[in-house]
Amino acid sequence: MPLTSADFSAIWLTLQLASLTTVILLIVGTPIALWLAHTRSRLRGPIGAIVALPLVLPPTVIGFYLLLTMGPHGYVGQFTQFLGLGTLTFSFAGLVIGSVIYSMPFVVQPLQNAFTAIGPRLLEVAATLRANPWDTFFSVILPLARPGFITAAILGFAHTVGEFGVVLMIGGNIPEKTRVVSVQIYDHVEALEYAQAHWLAGAMVVFSFLVLLALYSSRKSQTSWS
Amino acid sequence: MTSQINLRLQHSYPGFSLDLDLQLPGKGVTALFGDSGSGKTTCLRCIAGLERATQAYVQINDEVWQDSQRDHFVPVHKRALGYIFQEASLFPHLSVRANLEFGLKRIARHERRVDLAHATELLGITHLLERAPNNLSGGERQRVGIARALLTSPKLLLMDEPLAALDNQRKREILPYLERLHAELDIPVLYVSHSQDEVARLADHIVLLREGKALASGPIGETLARLDLPLARGDDAGVVIGGQVCHYNLHYQLLTLQLPGSTQQLRVAHASLAVGQTLRVKVQARDISLSLVPGEHSSILNCLRVTVVSETAADNRAHVLVRLDADGTTLLARITRFSRDQLHLYPGQALWAQIKAVAVLA
After folding, report:
1. Which of these three, B232, B256, B289, is where a domain ends?
2. Predicted-complex ipTM score
3. Which of A58, B140, B154, B250 has its CA 20 to 30 Å from the CA of residue B186?
4. Contact B214, B229 (CB under 8 A)
């Protein structure tokens, strides 16, 4: 048996984390992307830059600040303690929050591009045809931006699977709670279990390739309307 | 219940300000006419609520859509309007039928006054229903867009240069449909255009806009013939006359029209029409020449007894525009300053207007 039960639980945890993060990001990222695509506000630049920050910051920097704010002396930490929830650091919930922030640009940017491509005109048309804003979202924006949503979901999921630095900073390495695949590989290597590391690392390569293959092949068929 | 459109709009953004106070007829076609940048489109967008004018009062017959003094603003999707954009802007992910049903589905059954069959027949798109918008020509797309707007049974139709994106052939293809709309449906239309021909053909009332202000607003016949407006000075200047059919000569294919309230007649080359029907024609100022004696032995078909009302300078130094009265119908003639002096024109003078061509508008 090439993979141990510890490996499987790391894979399972990673899939749970990535799925939950993707769902949250699609829900949170859609209104942000809509706002960025259509606003004429002066805050558009700054908010866009903040959303994009995780693209350029080392994951350890994000992890470090999250550790401070969610820790017992941080604002978030004090609030969660006040609610009787303890602190979020070194917990699965903390990992989810960290992943949401870390993978945010990978979801928001494809969505924003998709919404910008639709443009304001069709939304105005929908309004003159009696569709309220929610109605317009579901009957015009969602179907027209579907390729953008697929790209956003795939990138958000894949990027969360691949995260390491943020997890290590705020999640540590607790089996079945915060030990995801990337950390598990690191552990194997530390313990000189290269064969074990190979199996997991190889699986990650195959997984990533398949994800990107799906993404790029679907892009080709997205030019049906212009 | 008032059949009137009341508009007070004040709206500005850097480099432009709109300041209008207009009372428009609550039926028929009203043209908003002006150069680009005169505020036509902004005016239409403010009426629709696509843009929220800072200070505004928008009343369409018995409904108030915006009253900024009471902080009253009806959102676009709750206004019973149809908006035709310059490009048809059909939903690319929906078939023609689904595009048409988009608005129809969203209004209550008891408010539907136009049904799918009627609208598609009116615009000649019945055979296109199952097609995708991508496979339509520009003219077909625009007709679908118009039908889609009609199907929401609007109380006001706003058309923003619906023909501007089309070539001349497509324009000729759509204009008859617009005229049928005008004739068959009792929906007031605000029609934005910078084409004097379209306006002359379709509009009953015209608002002349320049730099966000209304230079004039009035019935099309009177307004086009006003010498104090820039309309009269341009090369396209002319008047629109609604003549009543009184005779048809089958042999020569000529239709005789009687000028309103007069015994004088105009003859135009046209297919036969029933006696008593009204035909709209445009007489261009440059197609009229003036003479002190009735023109005989000439190929010119139409010669009317007129009196000189007034004159004004044209857009170049060689020409003048003369306003003429033919038993109550106003005509404009564009003649050279030289000819004016040769004829010694003076107000009240009786002479003959020879009309080289009469353009049939509808």
Report:
1. B232
2. 0.84
3. B140
4. no
